[in-house]
Amino acid sequence: MSGDGDPSETKAYAAYEAYDDARAVVRLFQCSQCSYPLRDPMTLPCGNSLCKPCLPPLYKRENITYPLIDGRSEGFLCPFKGCGLEHSVGDCGTDVTLNKIMHVIKAYIAQHQTESPKVSLLLEEKLDWPSVRDSSIDVMPRSRVLQGGRILATYVLADMGELHYQSDVAYTPVGTSIEESTIRELDIATLSALKEVVQAELECQHLLNDLLEARRAVADQEDSVDEEGHLPLFPCTLAYPQMPTFLHIFEPRYRLMIRRVMDNGSRKFGMLMYRPYTPPSGAPQYMPYGTVLYVERLEMLPDGRSLIETRGLYKFRVIEASLVDGYFVGKVQRIDDIPVHEEEIMESRETSTAAPPDADEQTQLQHLSTQRLLDMCLGFVEQARSQSAQWLHQRVLAAYGQPPSDPAVFPYWLASVLPIAQTEKYTLLPATSVRERLKITASWIQRLERARQ
Fold first, then answer.
1. pTM of the entire predicted model
2. DSSP alpha helices (H): ranges in 224-309?
3. What is the pLDDT of residues 196-220, one digit of tens each?
4. In what helix (H) or strand (E) does residue 171 lie, and over which residues does it extend?
5. Strand order in the sheet with 74-77
6. Domains of the chain by range and CATH?
7. Is the Cβ–Cβ distance between 197 and 104 less than 8 Å?
8. Cα angle vertex 178, ends 172, 180, to 5°?
């Protein structure tokens, strides 16, 4: 290409050459499983996409009882090389953006098949023989004479089901009057138009994404802590996510702290437990893991003291802290639970075999399903209720509610009402697995039941 050509033409050629060839462009929109253009495309957790009809056979996932969410009880093995992992149906869904892109591309192709110049090409499929040997496809390569330039013709060939995903294509003009430059210009125009229709759809999606991001930003501002900022810290007692904590604020420094978190609108501070023993030299007097509390109700007393009702939002770990006007402020790291699929892998691994007959109680717990661990804990609470246990007094239930059936919440509820040592209850805070927390609470129950015997 000469250097004194039209700049717009140069730009267009460069855009086309950004792809290997027309075949590479069309392959972007083909399903690697059936080789047709994507139909109802689904994007899997591994990031690969395929047609919804190409989803592998489903099977019942064994040894998984948490979480009880639609679609998580069924799974399939990922058909893509480089993955091969089990995916839950609940983690897969129609890729809305990709689906809309495929619709606009199909509409564009259908329209321009009739409008494009009558350029006839012979398309000959060049099979990828290693993939042929590994599959059951017809080993005979196919060929067609189609119109519309290389990109349009290649897409049509794929839409006819006559172009395997791994195959390449050889193009031969039909007729001596067709020049290569004519075909190339047609392909450049096609690629430019495809980019425009795709970009328009993506921009529409970005408008929606902007709204979602704005809402997400508000939620993040409400529910997270800026790790570069400072969170007011209150070493006092244990607190848990989703559980209420009732406080009587009387010390001047914490009265000041509460007044500031109310005035700045955050209504948040971090609750920490004091160390039950003398800390090592230089270590803080509080434990490193705590819970961010949100002030739901505040009652000011005439003498400046206050009674506040808070609810736990999420857990955190103190990275560093310093004193400001007598109370601690800290840089913290939010502590979230492991992803659901890791939770499922943990349960499946631990429960796929039965506990040995001579196993101790702790080992037996390892082999119980997550739902069985919860049932064991709920059964213990019901038995205690039937025996009128003081820790289940009506006043306690009025404050903390009835025992929740949600495995993620129950351990925090039990720790809030059960009269055992704070050091044992604290072990729930560093735990980042629902199953792990249920095993901790189940071990408390085992010990209490042994003590009663």
1. 0.74
2. 252-263
3. 888 887 776 657 455 446 555 544 5
4. strand 168-173
5. 59-60, 74-77, 86-88
6. 13-55+92-197 (no CATH), 231-335 (2.30.130.40), 357-452 (no CATH)
7. yes
8. 70
